[in-house]
């Protein structure tokens, strides 16, 4: 039994009375298919006040880009009724069921665009969809904003705070993650103590309770310490292993560079004159001994037998790693504190200024460092997410504004539950996503 083309596409587009496809035009030259959608109702509910049986004042021509039909660009066209309400006195256009108000794209087209932008640079997604990238950015900002407004932060207890850059060397943003739920909670421009206050306000606005936050993991920057102390005084601060060892690596690199600059002949005499050996020294000193290759093993054995400052710096760094390993195994605060104090004493007497500065820093932050050793919490997840953000930035060749950077971060890392679903997924999942987005909007249009 044959079915009329208009009836077929009415069903395919999911339209219900009084909406229907009244005409289909295919232009193979322009590689385009156009669907004319009609509304045959004579009276409609008022979109403003909901009173039924109101007359139609006029109709306004509108067009929407839809998902491609095979290789053809698809467009929907409709004369959208405007209802003249005798009850409220307003003349209001009805909301079509396939698009949100004011958009030139259908809901399914926007959903596909969002799905592509979760894994592709926005410019590349826009090119695939054959739309202007700025139009796609506006959709990202809209959907991310509405989804975040409905996102709850209730039950957040452990947070990780860090900073990342939108451009090399400047324009830093603060990121706050829920370390238990593994999601991005908050992101704002700047990296001072006020950023934590802004997070607290955003947490409250999303149903969270600042008093429930018991733990904040971060680096040793004074700004975030001050921010947490003032805005979240009940939260215990810990400094995770990643940042502490990173500081030790920085101190070690400073010693190595200074020695190479001031005494290159001494270094070459101790390690060998081969360029490959000198270049491999940095990676050997930074790396885990278990991961050394044969060349690095030979280089590091020469280093350990030498009297170079770099050798002492490497021993100090490895000594700090050993302190962490023993502290974790003992799971004893007293043992961890005693071992760390011993390392601090060693570093202060080592006559290497970078490590003396590090020892002073660790002594000032001793409780937080010990706490970070024992509780097992780490900002490794935050650092991994920051790495993904930087990879996203490189793939996109940068972002024009901080606003765009923040929007794409929320889209990809916040686990937003109220985004429209990918239209290429199974129908049940897709329809559920569209229903979540439409929640709170007017009821489906019915004839009076």
TrEMBL record:
Residues 94-144 form the Transposase IS204/IS1001/IS1096/IS1165 helix-turn-helix domain. Residues 159-407 form the Transposase IS204/IS1001/IS1096/IS1165 DDE domain. Residues 45-88 form the Transposase IS204/IS1001/IS1096/IS1165 zinc-finger domain. Pfam families: DDE_Tnp_ISL3, HTH_Tnp_ISL3, Zn_ribbon_ISL3. This is Mobile element protein. It comes from Caballeronia sordidicola.
